[in-house]
């Protein structure tokens, strides 16, 4: 069960989708069902990188697909635009709420100001925001995760897998959210094997500079770390992480993916032999759960956190080389038990 701290009311309004979205980002999928009432349900607005990142945004879309299939209603998912402002994001969310979509979820911390403003304008609509806990309103669910816990386990795996005693971390943007990934990873490495060196690099200072949406930047950063003998590279960089995985594959070293199980992503199939594991967070479940809460008449509100104990963060084991490596599995299992029990306190910065 997800832990819910507050409850809010929900409601809807209606209007035309295509018209309202023309000025604030295109709709990649707007789907209807055979439901005779024509109800509108979950709508999501993607973060930078958009649909097709094989990571964060695609995980959110999986949650939308599950809600659509189960609740038989119309859904919408909307792409970001280059160089957009907070006002553009707000317009996008307001447009979806005005049309009657409920809930409306912003995928990514960058939607913070937009969610706050839109929620104030549509108090009977439930809004969600992934990866941000700063928006406090009765009709807003802050969908957050303990990413540092999964990253700690990734660090344990990296420390057990490295043969050069050097591993790398590539962060998309130098912000507190990604600092959690780095902190957990480095702590996991050092607690497992103190002699291992951790090389860290951030691609950009702001998302607008492309840190989450530039595979070329990720590839260049990973190549630099590999030249310095890193033989395991962990990326928390959205779409840019694909470049990290490509570089690892070319140099025949390990990559660790993020958010989704990237070993299982079709678009990354030619690189999957180099994807040791992925530090996952169940964005799909978070998005689906807020939709279900609205459908059940008890909308989620406040901070709703997924962590290792709830099973909403962890390590993917699709790669048989990872799954069948007894030394790695024993170390990861031991660390997981200690985190859940509280024996290990994972840093967030």
Order of helices and strands: EHEEHEHEHEEHEHEHEHEEHEEHH
The tally of helices reads 11
Structural class: alpha/beta
Head-to-tail CA distance between termini: 28 Å
Can you summarize the main beta sheet?
A: 8 strands, mixed
Q: What value does the Rg take, in angstroms?
A: 20 Å
**How much is the average pLDDT?**
89
3D shape: globular
Strand content: 15-25%
Helical residue percent band: 25-40%
Low-pLDDT segments:
1-37
> How many strands?
14
In which order are the strands of the major sheet placed? 1-13-7-6-5-3-4-2
Can you lay out the helices and strands and say which pair or pack?
Elements (H helix, E strand, L loop, with lengths): L5 E2 L9 H5 L5 E5 L8 E6 L10 H16 L2 E5 L7 H13 L5 E4 L4 H10 L5 E4 L9 E6 L1 H15 L4 E8 L2 H17 L4 E8 L10 H13 L4 E5 L4 H11 L2 E6 L15 E7 L1 H13 L4 E7 L6 E3 L4 H4 L2 H16 L8
Parallel strand pairs: 3-4, 3-5, 5-6, 6-7, 7-13, 8-9, 8-10, 10-11, 11-12
Antiparallel strand pairs: 1-13, 2-4, 12-14
Helix pairs in contact: 2-9, 3-4, 5-6, 5-11, 7-8
